[in-house]
């Protein structure tokens, strides 16, 4: 087979050695040294799509999106198959990071995905919305104090965060994060549904809505649920962290873990705070889960504007003053 006048062949031993050493360095976080080796590999085998795929991958790790797009386009130009190549997925991520919507659409289509609106003239150049990819989870800060939260996929590379992340993550409800394409783990439900866990790459769109923590006295689960409904009706969110957050070790977080069925009530969808060590069997339990005795004092996360949050809590109490109280409201993110 000939490509641009060159016969396609197996990569040389020098190419393989440079590439293998580069990925060892990437694993150690030595991106500059790895980049020099992968550039050398591309000089040795410029007709090999893997040379440019590897460079595009490195630039993705470095969040150098212009270079990732450039190397990715060189990789796909050398492909010998029509659809399904991961090279196109990396191009789609880089294009999404750069808001290069025509290229993002082209990448998802070339991978084999159907993009709504692709045949509507000028609309095809717009943001690839409406792909109906459903719910998923994303691991915030995957290299640090990781936390898995729930959200809705906007497109193949972005997720809208619908849990209220813990303040340690530095993320907020309503933010859009750019995520990688290969899942690391999944969350399964009793009904047989499975949701992938993607790793966050970077924040794509921040949220203006601050995160608050408040202590509630809620006599029953119904009282707690009433606050979550009240916040949702106002267009914001409340989440009972006492029952929605569980501690998992990293290896468990990256495996297939059971989760309650999502039905719109976020306290039924545990999100996970990862720890380097194994917390033991109790660490895998969701606090306040079904069958547990109800504890009236709850630590609750709230996502709402400063001008609304106290009024929201006061309205919640006013609806049932004998069974509800709040105190110690604090903005945390």
Automatic annotation (TrEMBL):
Residues 259-286 are annotated as: Disordered. This is Tetratricopeptide repeat domain-containing protein. Residues 264-275 have a biased composition (Basic and acidic residues). SUPFAM superfamilies: TPR-like (SSF48452). Gene3D superfamilies: Tetratricopeptide repeat domain. It comes from the Bacteria.
């Amino acid at each position: 087979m000939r490509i641009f006048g060159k016969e396609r062949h197996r990569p040389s031993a020098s190419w393989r050695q440079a590439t293998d050493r580069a990925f060892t360095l990437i694993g150690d976080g030595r991106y500059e040294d790895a980049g020099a080796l992968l550039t050398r590999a591309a000089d040795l085998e410029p007709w090999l799509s893997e040379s440019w795929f590897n460079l595009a991958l490195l630039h993705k790790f470095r969040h150098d999106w212009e270079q990732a797009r450039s190397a990715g386009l060189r990789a796909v130009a050398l492909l010998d198959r029509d659809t399904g190549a991961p090279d196109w997925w990396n191009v789609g991520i880089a294009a999404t990071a750069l808001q290069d919507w025509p290229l993002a659409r082209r990448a998802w289509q070339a991978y084999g995905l159907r993009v709504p609106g692709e045949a509507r003239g000028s609309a095809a150049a717009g943001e690839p919305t409406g792909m109906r990819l459903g719910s998923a989870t994303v691991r915030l800060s995957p290299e640090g104090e990781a936390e898995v939260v729930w959200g809705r996929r906007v497109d193949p590379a972005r997720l809208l965060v619908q849990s209220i992340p813990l303040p340690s993550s530095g993320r907020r409800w309503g933010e859009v994060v750019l995520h990688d394409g290969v899942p690391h783990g999944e969350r399964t439900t009793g009904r047989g549904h499975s949701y992938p866990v993607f790793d966050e790459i970077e924040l794509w769109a921040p949220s203006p809505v601050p995160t608050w923590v408040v202590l509630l006295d809620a006599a029953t689960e119904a009282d707690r649920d009433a606050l979550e409904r009240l916040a949702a009706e106002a267009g914001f969110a409340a989440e009972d962290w006492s029952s929605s957050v569980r501690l998992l070790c990293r290896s468990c977080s990256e495996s297939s873990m059971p989760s309650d069925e999502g039905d719109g009530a976020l306290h039924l969808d545990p999100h996970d705070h990862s720890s380097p060590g194994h917390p033991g069997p109790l660490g895998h339990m969701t606090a306040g889960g079904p069958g547990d005795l109800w504890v009236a004092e709850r630590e609750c996360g709230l996502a709402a504007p400063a001008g609304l949050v106290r009024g929201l809590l006061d309205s919640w109490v006013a609806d049932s003053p004998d069974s509800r109280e709040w105190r110690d409201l604090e903005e945390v993110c």
